[in-house]
Amino acid sequence: MSNSRDLILGRVRRALADVPKGDTPYEQDVPRDYRERHGERTPAETVELLAENLADYRAIVHRTNTAELPSTLAGLLAARGARTVLVPSGLPTDWLTGVEQVPDRAESTPYELDRVDSVVTGCTVAIAETGTLVLDGSPDQGRRRITLVPDHHICVVLVPDQVVDSVPQALRRLVPERPLTWISGPSATSDIELERVEGVHGPRTLEVVLVSEV
């Protein structure tokens, strides 16, 4: 492993040998003057666009408020028949009631995660124009694998605070060094005959709860 690392780093050093020490860093040298969104929208219209694009990707969209969130989640889990729910360490304790909560542990095996009925997480940002949810491993989102192994994922999005119009706007809220997971609908792929298959490399069912303050 050390030899491979040294080989790669050596190649990088040789490639950079003729770069002046005062050269403009890449992130400053590349112009960022492209359009950040398409059209003007109010926050409410941005949330509506997010809901529309989430549904277009076959995510199931629900709406509620902070006071009704616990009962909404309880209803969704009951309808699914979920008895065990994987819970990130930082998920608000009052969100879930009446189910067995399975903690997000580093030592959990994929087989253990696969036996869990559902997982509930928050999110970092939701992108309206692409219908994409971004998780970054924050305490209310947990390790990346907990949203990839269980078959049912409920993601809670606080609106309008966590919703942006476009990918460029989302990037400004993200820390590149964090473990980012970009989710556009349930996991799906197609074979050579374009037969859609869901749940290949992630949950078959994605439910998104858009939560407003009132």
TrEMBL record:
InterPro entries: FTHF_cligase-like_sf, LUD_dom, NagB/RpiA_transferase-like. Residues 29-41 have a biased composition (Basic and acidic residues). Residues 19-41 are annotated as: Disordered. SUPFAM superfamilies: NagB/RpiA/CoA transferase-like. Residues 101-211 form the LUD domain. It holds the Pfam family LUD_dom. PANTHER family: LACTATE UTILIZATION PROTEIN C. This is LUD domain-containing protein. It comes from Streptomyces gibsoniae.
